[in-house]
Known about the structure:
Oligomer: single chain
Number of domains: 1
Distance between the termini: 22 Å
Number of strands: 0
Order of helices and strands: HHH
Amino acid sequence: MDNKNLNNLRADLVGELEAINQYQGHIDEVDDEEVKKVLTHVMNDEKEHVAELTKLLQQVDATQKEKFEKEGL
Length: 73
């Protein structure tokens, strides 16, 4: 995979992590339980995206894979 695609993949991962933080902030601020439920569901979808992108990053970046393995991930 070329550097442009790796950079895009990493930027996508950052975007997902930022989205998780944003949803968590909204969840913490809202009192309506139905709204919290929906936002939590959406946030958990973003967490799944983080896992999928991380797995993909391990597959296409040998150095990143080595670092994950070193940490037991």
